[in-house]
Amino acid sequence: MIDTKEASEKLVRGFLGSWRGRSLETICSAFADDAVYHNVPVDPITGISGIRAMFRAFLDAFSDVRLDIVTLVAEPARVLVERVDYFTMNDGRKVALPVTGVFEVKNGKITRFSDYFDLADFERQSGIEL
């Protein structure tokens, strides 16, 4: 499969949008089995099972998730996304977090997903320590 600019953008937009539906299987289906997920302030997670566990923890902690794209730039096999992530905690508290994500794509799957954000801001708003 050739990872065109258009295909890479469609994959990433689909992944980001899939969080609204809260289906762990749909969310994780965008990733290669050996993918790396890196919330850059903390250690990276390698492999779909670790990524699945992290995403499950997020879904369990939040009653609603919306990842709003501010700016998206795509090239073949690479997508950069400036966004604001909105989370509603199970207790009703709201989190709004500016994030920049970098996605690497190979054979129609995300192979690396690196998110850059202010860890202290996330922890202060959510009460969750990463």
Automatic annotation (TrEMBL):
GO terms for molecular function: hydrolase activity. InterPro entries: Cyclase_SnoaL-like, NTF2-like_dom_sf, SnoaL-like. It comes from Mycobacterium paraseoulense. Keywords: Hydrolase. It holds the Pfam family SnoaL_2. GO terms for biological process: polyketide metabolic process. This is Limonene-1,2-epoxide hydrolase. It comes from the Bacteria.
